Amino acid sequence: MKHMDEKVKHVQPFHFMPVKTVPLKQNKNDKTTFNELLKDEQIKMSKHAQERFLERNIEIDEKQWKKIAHHMQQAKQKGITDSLVILNHATLLVSTKNNTIVTALDHNEVSNRIFTNINGAIVIND
């Protein structure tokens, strides 16, 4: 059991959420860091999700993040713990229980897929 406890200590949650439209790959001259853009909200993003956003060049603007946060809160109040957030250009797998973005897929990856272990879906059309 001690060995497992040591591994758990190395996992660090990411506490952030974008607050304006910004590509995740930022210019070196840009003084605003990604974490600074995200810290105003209570949604966390897993390291895995952060990597998927970068790999897939997924960008979400401030308006969409606010809608996502609002709908995640509503879903949580209705007892939903794990949900898909379906946007026009991307789909997010989220844990409303932990207020965490678990992973992200672009719109091309979502077709002909079966998603399991979710108990709700949030659709946001913009």
Summarize the structure.
By secondary structure, the protein is of the alpha/beta class. Helix content is 33%, strand content 19%.
Task: Walk me through the structure.
It is a single chain. The chain has 126 residues and is α/β, with parallel strands linked by helices. 33% of the residues lie in helices and 19% in strands. The protein has five helices and five strands. Strands 1-4-3-2-5 form a five-stranded mixed beta sheet.
The count of β-strands is 5
Helix content: 25-40%
- Kindly estimate the percentage of residues that lie in beta strands according to DSSP: 15-25%
Residue runs with pLDDT of under 50 for 5 or more positions: 1-34
Radius of gyration using CA atoms only? 15 Å
Helix and strand sequence: HHEHHEEEHE
Q: Specify the biggest β-sheet.
A: 5 strands, mixed
Distance separating the two termini? 48 Å
Instruction: Provide the spatial order of strands within the biggest beta sheet.
Output: 1-4-3-2-5
Task: Return the average pLDDT rounded to an integer.
Answer: 77
Cα shape: globular
**DSSP summary: helix tally:** 5
Which structural category fits the helices and strands? alpha/beta
Keywords, separated by commas or semicolons:
globular; five-stranded mixed β-sheet; alpha/beta; single chain; 5 strands; 5 helices; 126 residues
